[in-house]
Amino acid sequence: MRYWLDTNVLLRLVTKTPPDLFERALALVEQAEFGALSLAVHPLHVAGATYVLRRLYTYTHEEIRRELGIVLRLEALAVHDEENVLAALDLMAERNVDFDDAYLALWAATCGDGVASFGDDQKKLPVTFLSP
């Protein structure tokens, strides 16, 4: 059976805290590596993890890109829309924008669409931008 990882499991794998929950999360990944189950990650939970890492753990965008990127690249995890998710982590760090803005820009561009926003961060991203 496939199981979708919640944000809290991603956070345990990145922060390795608290140690008991990290060990349980790691054991889950090991089960997936041995084929006992499969694990998937949705971009919504990647966005949640980036927010918590930034706000509560005070990780920089670069630290988030590096540490969360390591977890998301684990062979045991199937990341939905992996190409855009990893590219959004790169854009987040390179252009100093939030992950959700970077991901939305990449998703819209993939679809041949643009982004309408009152924010200025979209102007930093590779997408057609419209300010209402």
From TrEMBL:
Organism, as annotated: Thermorudis peleae
Entry-linked InterPro entries: PIN-like_dom_sf, PIN_dom
Segments forming domain PIN: 5-125
Highest taxon in the source lineage: Bacteria
Signal peptide positions on this chain: none
Protein name: Type II toxin-antitoxin system VapC family toxin
